[in-house]
Amino acid sequence: MTLIESAKANHVDPRDYITHLLEKIPQLPEFPKKEDLEAYLPWNFSRALATAIELP
């Protein structure tokens, strides 16, 4: 599935999800751990978490 279709399948607004990814993913370390990336999967995303997630 594409990112957009995955977001839709998980009842997440694709625009909010992609915007969140583009803002937060570049702030991750060069080689992030699997656990760090799992927070950004569409089924773990929510609007409340989008503003609450603070990355180093």
Describe what you observe in this structure.
This protein has helices spanning 3-9, 14-24, 34-38, 47-52. The chain starts with a helix and ends with a helix. Helix 1 (3-9) packs across helix 2. It has one domain (3-52). The protein is 52% helix and 0% strand. The longest helix is centred in the middle third of the chain and has 11 residues, at 14-24. It is mainly α and 56 residues long. The model has no long low-confidence stretch (mean pLDDT 84).
* Proportion of residues in β-strands: under 5%
Order of helices and strands: HHHH
Major sheet: none
Low-confidence parts lasting 5 or more residues at pLDDT below 50?
none
Q: How many strands in all?
A: 0
Integer average pLDDT: 84
- Shape summary: globular
The tally of structural domains comes to 1
- Computed Rg: 11 Å
What structural class is derived from the secondary structure elements?
Answer: mainly alpha
